[in-house]
């Protein structure tokens, strides 16, 4: 068999003029309030995406490093931007692959996140090749070690974070929150951290309740109970992008300053060689499981 990997990420607009189309893709045809679009354009402007788009550049660096590590073709497919997941799937098949590993650069499964990547990939491949899709890798020991190395030895209270989702996922038995808490616990145990907590971030104003606590409220609660120094360790994201560089580096930092709280965050895994080796291990494991096809 000749395998190829479709490495999937959220995707990010390359320039400000792309933001309306990108946002429309995220909304999947549902209406967008003009003030929310203006606010999003402004966040991207302040992030400096006219000069460079961090997420797309980091994803390409990760792709190239993973390809070199595995010695297999690795193609990037974006959920909400180009190159699309379907384009990556076509390129993988055109290159002669007769089985496809689907790996998302997001470790935790939710029907509201990973399932969307899976659906796009499986629809694109159809019956042309078996797809070995990795649903989650939140407890991968090498990934846990990458994060543990970044928090070990800190004297700060560690706050693990991840993207919030609408709270209704809990009634649907979605494993997202449990997987996030498991990663947090595994990282804390591996690093010998006892003083830690978890909060969500990056909630969208969609008019329904989202999972909490949100990090901004959580910082207030930590300050109220006497915490002076916080180290933020995102576990649900692996790259520098808008949700890190704006929601944490601007909004959470501003909130911490207002509270008189010292706030730092870990360096994201991005294309760190140890993280790329962890991804390669996940791909090799997926390939070693006997195929159902
Ligand atoms: O740097 C960048 O340009 C892109 C950063 C980015 C990442 C990301 C990851 C996740 N999201 C998840 C869920 C949702 C849900 C909605 C939603 C909306 C947005 C908007 C932007 C955005 N997300 Fe995102 N997300 C990123 C960016 N996300 C921009 C639209 C503006 C806003 O609401 O702030 C709500 C959709 C709706 O309106 O109906 C739900 C989840 C992840 C982590 C997993 C993954 O990476 O796929 C979950 C990175």
Task: Give me the secondary-structure category.
Answer: alpha/beta
The parts where pLDDT drops under 50 for at least 5 residues are: none
Task: Provide the helix percentage.
Answer: 40-55%
Sheet with the most strands: spatial strand order: 2-1-3-4
Mean pLDDT: 96
- Number of β-strand runs: 8
The Cα radius of gyration reads 19 Å
Please tally the helical runs, counting DSSP H or I stretches of 4 or more residues. Answer: 12
Write the layout of secondary structure elements.
Layout: E1 3-9, H1 19-27, H2 34-47, H3 54-70, E2 74-78, H4 85-94, E3 99-104, H5 114-125, E4 131-133, H6 141-151, E5 157-163, H7 168-171, H8 176-191, E6 196-201, H9 215-224, E7 229-234, H10 242-245, H11 247-259, E8 262-265, H12 273-288
Parallel strand pairs: 1-2, 1-3, 3-4, 5-6, 5-7, 7-8
Helix pairs in contact: 3-12, 4-5, 6-8, 6-12, 9-11
Bound molecules: ligand FEC.
The site of ligand FEC has 19 residues, from helix 1 and helix 10.
Descriptive notes:
The protein is an alpha/beta fold and 293 residues long. The protein is 46% helix and 15% strand. The protein has a four-stranded parallel β-sheet with strand order 2-1-3-4, with helices on both faces. The protein has a four-stranded parallel β-sheet with strand order 6-5-7-8, sandwiched between helices. The chain starts with a strand and ends in a 5-residue tail after the last helix. It binds ligand FEC. Ligand FEC binds at residues 10, 12, 23, 26-27, 40, 55, 106, 112-113, 163, 165, 204, 206, 236-237, 241-243.
